[in-house]
Structures are given as structure tokens and as C-alpha cells.
Amino acid sequence: MKNKVLITGITGMVGSHLADYLLSKTDWFIHGMCRWRSPIDNITHLFDRANKKDRIEFHNGDLCDFLSLFDVISKTKPDFVFHLAAQSYPQTSFTSPLVTFDTNISGTLRLLEAIRKNKINPLIHICSSSEVFGRVPSENLPIDELCNFHPASPYAISKVGTDLVGRYYSEAFGLKVMTTRMFTHTGPRRGDVFAESTFAKQIALIEQGIIPPIINVGNLKSLRTIADVRDAVRAYHMLLTINPVPGEVYNIGGDYTCKIKDILNYLIKISKINEIEINIDKKRLRPIDADLQVPDTSKFRTHTGWSPKIKFEQTMEDLLNYWRKRVKDKEDIIIR
Q: How far apart are CA 88 and CA 298, in angstroms?
């Protein structure tokens, strides 16, 4: 009998890429959980298979509604759970902290409780975030798993809660939870609320003459280690299939470290526009920022043998081409 996997947040960038990866690299049957109001742009290419129930099926569920979670778990009884659903936008969390806390902390608790109440014990991946480390002194770089939490946004605080809820359910109830703290990962389908994606989107709009040659930016000084989303989902699959150790937590991240300004400069370099003005938009600045995000990923790499395969340059080119296609196809694009 084929393994069954549940992906919460399958409509997101990571969830949709994980579905693509599992469909191509395994024979598992994929159950994708979607909120009724979530955008479905990232999974339209899967609709034909879903209509035929060809190894993929979608289910309505909401982290803020326990009964819907219980129903999804009861129907699917997964062998593996990738919990990727979240309010995942740090900037949004400053204006909507309560929704962020309820979705990410209480939502994770509701999901794990629904699993426990259904009396099943799948391998569970809890997706925390490198944002839990927040403001790290330079002498503590690179950041390992034992680094103290110093969250710098309501989103980061919510991911600390997510992290601890997963640990609690592992220790208290024996659920087979493994937690990842993934550092910056990007690529096609990245939401335009994230720095490198809004840069690429604005460039695509400029190239088509839709907006003037001005890119609005926030803090360009933050240091980030960049990975490709397609390498990230490969890591998540390896997490649950290569000697999985319940209760463990891992940092995962790429090899390429740079400032946000360097990302912007590279995207401009590969654009079709010779001169672009940079404008610091105060609305894009966070009250405080996690400005040194450089991971020590040796624990995960040693355990699984994983390493990133996709180079920074390829990731950026694919991201820019993703936005070029969306703009060229005249999809509904909000300018922001």
C-alpha cells in the first residue's frame, strides 16, 4: 500500500514545490490541505491530476478551525505530515499580530491535537523558521541549533511558539515530531511581500513599461544566507525518510551569504533595463530586523547527506523569469 502524505499549506510556495517533488520522486499519495480563501495560483498545474485523483487530492481545512483539522486527519490518516501552513509574512505580523499568533502557535497545537485525538502517529515535520533566532550578535555566527532565541517580529515570536509546541507534543505525547529552522529560501512562486521577490516583480513591471524605472526597497543591509526552494523541499523529504529521529531540530540553509543589497544588484544586472533608480520606502522597513542570518547547518547535513544543488544565480534568474511570465501573461498583478 502506498504511503499517504498530508501537506498543510499546499497552496504556498513551499507546499506547491513539495507536492511537485513528491509526485516526481516518490509513489506516495498526496493529500493537500487548503484554506477555502487561499489563492490557488501555485497549484493550478496540479488540478488535472487532482480531478482524476491521480496521486493527489485537496481537502478544505483551516488552522484556526479544530473541527476542520480533525476531519482532514480522520479522512486521510497520513503516514507523513509536512506542516507548512502559516501566516508566513513577517511584515504583515506587525499589523496583524493576533492573527499571526493564532494561526501559527494555536494552529500548530490544533493540528497536533487532531493527530493525537485520531490515535495515529505519523512522522511529522514542523516548519519553524530561522527568524526565531532574530537579532544574533556577530560573535555568535554562524547560528547553530543551540543559539538563544531573540525574535524580532510578531511572526518570529509565533514561530518560537510553533517550535516549542512541536517539542512539547513530542516529549509529552510521543508524537514523532521533527522541527526545521529553515533560513532564507526563495525561487519561483515566492510571494511578493518578500524582498527579493518584490525586487524581481518590480523589475518585470518596469521591463514591460507598466511602472517607471524605480524600485522601492526596505532595509538593504541585512545579511542573509540564500537557498533555493527546490533544494529546501528535497531537504524536507530527506528529513522524514533518512533515519528520522523524533524530537530533533535542525537548521537548514544554503551556501551563499550576501546582503539584501547584493540580491537587488544582481537582479538589476540581469534585467533588460540599463538604469533603475532605488527608492527607500519607509513603509517597507521593519521596526526591528533580524539582520544577521547566517546558519550552521552541519547537524542536518551530517545526518542526511543533504547539500544544496541550485546556485544563487540560477535561483534569481528563475525568480525573475517567473515574474516576467506572470506580467507578460497579463495576470492580475497588484503594484506594491
A: 26
* pTM value > 0.85: yes
**Structural domains in the chain plus CATH codes:** 4-186+227-252 (3.40.50.720), 195-224+256-293+310-328 (3.90.25.10)
Concatenated DSSP letters of 19-51: HHHHHHH--PEEEEEE-TTS--GGGGGGHHHHH
In this predicted model, what pLDDT tens digit does every residue of 75-131 receive, in sequence order? 999 999 999 999 999 999 999 999 999 999 999 999 999 999 999 999 999 999 999
Residue 266 near residue 159, CB atoms below 8 Å: no
Integer Cα distance of 68 and 71 in angstroms: 5
Paired residues of 278 in beta bridges: 215
Alpha carbons within 13 A on the beta-carbon side of 52: 5
The b-or-e profile of 274-299 (16+ CB within 10 A means b, else e) is eebeeeeeeebebeebbbbbbbbbeb
Give the pLDDT band (50/70/90) at residue 67. Answer: very high
Residue holding cell 554562524? 142
Is-cis flag, bond preceding 295, omega within 30?
no
C-alpha 209/C-alpha 194 separation (Å) is 22
DSSP letter assigned to residue 277? E
* DSSP class of 52: T
